[in-house]
Write a structure and sequence with these properties.
The protein is an alpha+beta fold. The chain has three helices and four strands; from the N terminus they run E-H-E-E-H-H-E. A four-stranded antiparallel sheet has the order 2-3-1-4.
């Protein structure tokens, strides 16, 4: 079944323990309020890179369509999540959006 995803690659933060605490207690609950969010997965434990450098944490948010992602990003909840990133992602983050399908 086709789906659209937001892939977030978080670089290593200045204070990993503070990042983990804030991400779990504040950022995830904020993001879970986004209308149209089908699932929210995060990496568990250290991320390993087969090539290049590995991010500190990977998050995958799934939506039904790219239109749903656009609506989510434009919504007050989506704007709150985006505005929250500087509060904890001191290492920076890369956000990618794309359609996906099983092969």
């Amino acid at each position: 079944e086709p789906m659209a995803q937001v892939l977030v690659l978080y670089n290593t933060p200045a204070d990993p323990a503070a990042f983990d605490r804030y991400y779990k207690e504040t950022h995830i609950p904020l993001a879970q309020k986004i209308r149209g969010l089908r699932s929210y997965l995060i990496s568990d434990g250290a991320v390993q890179a087969l090539a290049g450098s590995a991010p500190y944490l990977v998050a995958i948010l799934e939506f039904d369509s790219m239109g749903d992602i656009s609506a989510a990003l434009a919504s007050p909840e989506g704007q709150a999540v985006a505005a929250d990133l500087p509060n904890f992602a001191s290492g920076g983050a890369t956000l990618l959006i794309y359609d996906s399908k099983a092969v």
